[in-house]
Specification:
CATH topology of the largest domain: Cathepsin D, subunit A, domain 1
Order of helices and strands: HEEEEEEEHEEHEHEEHEEEHEEHEEE
Number of strands: 20
CATH superfamily of the largest domain: Acid Proteases
Distance between the termini: 36 Å
Number of helices: 7
Strand content: 35-45%
CATH architecture of the largest domain: Beta Barrel
Radius of gyration: 22 Å
């Protein structure tokens, strides 16, 4: 029973990532035919690259934070088995999406770390896998959707689970347009499983609490990955209001000794908007303690 959360989530996601999308429709003359996905020639690399913060959920899925049409942030799983950007109906409604008869719509997708896709097709549907995981609190946070092929194929993504960021490099590639085939087996006939999980979760004493808080905003640039020296302070930022200056070296966060930028962001990324944190900084020959109230981040 020790690993029941992990195996339950594997069962849910392993049943079917999102049935109903397995090919594309193309015209051969005047005839509409089905054609399997073909990636074509290797995509060309372009110069844009990004450091995307991520974390592993309790079920060891890679989770990133996104905004859709300026709303959010939302928790999305990176899913190489999903064919498209997929979000719950509630999220699509909050994003004020204009959906077609097949529940597809166009979205402005922003991923924490600087990835910005002004126009991408997304599917609004309540995946039974996510409904079940949310009902039972398996992931340790509420899941709102998945990033699938039409998003991921635009980037080369480097994973290093010893770090707290993924390296995304933009590619000169555009995925083919997706079509959804509707029918009685829209989700493989397993749609009922999400509702079953929602029903049995309270009976098992599972009452997930998914409180959403924006990540806190600091307002500094550091002098390299291995340094805690402040290279610049953004005007009107929380750091500026706390009188931090260029050249200050951050020694402690909440009395925890830090030695690198990675240490610093590890603590800061766990803090939320309006939270007050105590810093110990070195300025010239003097050490001083300052309190900073974080602003609203992504």
């Amino acid at each position: 029973m020790k690993h029941w959360r992990f195996f339950a989530s594997i069962f849910l996601l392993g049943c079917l990532v999102i049935p109903g999308v397995s090919s594309i429709r193309v015209y051969a003359g005047s005839e509409l035919v089905e054609q399997p996905f073909e990636l074509g020639p290797p995509p060309k690399e372009v110069l844009n690259s990004f450091e995307v913060p991520f974390r592993l959920t309790d079920t060891k899925h890679v989770l990133v934070r996104v905004k859709l049409n300026g709303t959010g942030p939302y928790n999305f799983i990176i899913d190489t088995g999903a064919p498209a950007l997929i979000m719950s109906k509630e999220v699509a409604k909050k994003a004020k999406a204009k959906l077609d008869k097949n529940d597809f719509g166009e979205f402005h997708l922003q991923i924490e770390g600087g990835v910005d896709i002004p126009k991408i097709s997304g599917l609004s549907t309540d995946m039974f896998q996510l409904k079940g995981m949310n009902a039972m609190g398996l992931a340790g946070c509420q899941l709102h959707g998945v990033l699938g092929y039409n998003v991921l194929s635009q980037f080369r993504i480097q994973y290093d689970f010893t770090q707290d960021k993924l390296h995304w490099t933009k590619l000169d590639f555009q995925a083919p347009e997706l079509q959804r085939f509707k029918g009685k087996a829209d989700q493989g006939g397993l749609e009922f499983m999400g509702d079953i999980m929602k029903f049995i979760a309270p009976l098992m004493g599972m009452r997930p609490n998914f409180e959403m808080k924006p990540r806190g905003q600091f307002g500094i640039l550091l002098n390299g990955d291995k340094s805690t020296e402040i290279l610049a302070v953004l005007p009107e930022s929380p750091a500026s209001k706390a009188s931090l200056e260029k050249g200050d070296k951050i020694l402690k966060v909440k009395k925890n000794r830090i030695y690198s930028a990675k240490d610093l962001w590890k603590f800061i990324n766990q803090c939320h908007e309006n939270e007050k944190i105590e810093l110990t900084v070195q300025r010239a020959e003097e050490q001083k303690t300052v309190t900073i109230q974080l602003g609203k981040g992504f």
